[in-house]
Design goal:
Elements: E1 2-3, E2 10-15, H1 24-33, E3 67-71, H2 95-107, E4 116-122, H3 124-142, E5 149-155, H4 178-189, H5 195-198, H6 212-215, E6 223-226, E7 230-231, H7 232-237, H8 249-265, E8 271-274, E9 278-279, E10 292-293, E11 296-297, H9 298-314, E12 326-328, E13 343-344, E14 351-352, H10 354-360, H11 365-372, H12 376-385
Parallel strand pairs: 2-3, 2-4, 4-5, 5-6, 6-8, 7-9, 8-12
Antiparallel strand pairs: 1-3, 10-11, 13-14
Helix pairs in contact: 2-3, 11-12
GO molecular function: palmitoleyl hydrolase activity
Pfam families: PAE (PF03283)
InterPro entries: PAE/NOTUM
Length: about 375
């Protein structure tokens, strides 16, 4: 899907997300239940861009005028596959090749004169950005377009290969531990990972490159990482289910620890935006301008990042004053940031405020206050104001 903007030399290519499947059984199920993620047959003729793909300046203050490309996800392979349909395999997994073909086609539609190409994506598309951004840059160089600055924006695709809260056998996409699913997937899809990352690991260990903190140090292109500290997809594969039953203390500690671990993996990421919220995906949501970390919104942080890259191309100046690009919440539990998106009870659909949410999660105010050496009423006050 393409929205041209003839006056602009900025191009935004967005990779859609939607999990993946990693064997015949769960790919068959996916084909039966989520056909639009397996085939283009039922895709609409046009789509409306939202969030960073919106052409309304109110919704998309800095990128509304760019050329927008939405690449739907029908390869189920985290944008990594390079295998066509064969005798052995009923499905084709060609995510990496789809991106290359789209680039070839866009060159004839004005991409050849671009100044900046921002490869963005959410969820599996966010991981797809990490896996493909350098390859896109190399492809354009080989085609003779050295002048295009290629950058990445990875939203909700920075996963941890951590230990699950409760170990389960790898039966389907949702219960399978993150490493095991990717291990199986990469073989099934004939998935490819960037050469520079591959070289860091032994043969057969390429699955490591699907995890942001392992591939990021090997990337050449600048990448901006957007990641909720308490990502719902991460909690799902870690078997932390936050519906119905109050959360046990072990789970609560696991969740807080997850936030700490994630924060740790982002400390050397130059450009990042990581709010302490329980959510998944943000850049194509129409409320994406509302979330703030330390008083800075995401569109603003991306604008600052654009400027910093523009400035550093001219001269290695110090970071711009009042224009931060490394924004990570330091408060320790889900939704301790007051600008987090509204939480709804997954059963009733009712909106909850932070205190209701924490109570629903089995958060024990007395006990927590004691641990922090505070009066319970003071702790409640701090929670509701998000300090």
């Amino acid at each position: 899907y393409l929205k041209e903007s003839k006056g602009s030399r900025r191009w935004l290519l967005f990779l859609e997300g939607g999990w993946y499947c990693f064997n015949r059984e769960n790919c068959d199920t996916r084909y039966d239940t989520m056909r639009r993620l397996m085939s283009s047959q039922e895709w609409p003729a046009t789509r409306v861009g939202t969030g960073i793909l919106s052409s309304q300046p109110e919704e998309n203050p800095h990128w509304w005028n760019a050329n927008m490309v939405f690449i739907p996800y029908c390869s189920s392979d985290v944008w990594s596959g390079a295998s066509s349909k064969s005798e052995k395999n009923e499905y084709a997994f060609m995510g990496a090749l789809i991106i290359q073909e789209v680039i070839k086609e866009l060159v004839g539609k004005g991409l050849s004169t671009a100044k900046v190409l921002l490869l963005a994506g959410s969820s599996a598309g966010g991981t797809g950005v990490l896996l493909n951004v350098d390859r896109v840059a190399e492809q354009l160089e080989e085609m003779g377009y050295q002048g295009i600055q290629v950058r990445g924006l990875a939203d909700s695709g920075w996963f941890l290969d951590n230990k699950q809260y409760r170990r389960t056998d790898c039966i389907d996409t949702i219960t399978c531990a993150p490493t095991e699913a990717i291990r199986r997937g990469i073989r099934y899809w004939n998935g490819i990972v960037p050469e520079r990352c591959k070289l860091q690991f032994k043969e057969g260990e390429e699955w490591n490159c699907f995890f942001g903190y392992k591939i990021y140090p090997t990337l050449r292109c600048p990448v901006f990482v957007v990641q909720w500290l308490f990502d719902e997809a991460q909690l799902t594969v870690d078997n932390v289910h936050l519906t119905g039953q109050p959360v046990q203390e072990g789970q609560w500690l696991y969740i807080q620890n997850l936030g700490r671990e994630l924060r740790n993996t982002l400390k050397d990421v130059t450009a990042s935006f990581a709010p302490a919220c329980l959510s998944h995906e943000i850049i194509t949501r129409n409320h994406w301008t509302d979330i703030q970390v330390k008083g800075t919104s995401l569109p603003r942080a991306l604008h600052c990042w654009d400027r910093s890259l523009h400035e550093s191309n001219k001269n290695g100046k110090a970071p711009l004053k009042g224009c931060p690009i490394h924004l990570i919440d330091s408060c320790p539990w889900p939704h301790c940031n007051p600008s987090c998106p509204t939480i709804r009870d997954q059963f009733t659909g009712q909106e909850m405020n932070v205190i209701q949410f924490l109570m629903h999660m089995g958060f024990d105010v007395q006990k927590m206050a004691q641990q922090q050496g505070l009066e319970p009423s003071k702790l409640l006050g701090m929670l509701s104001s998000g300090n």
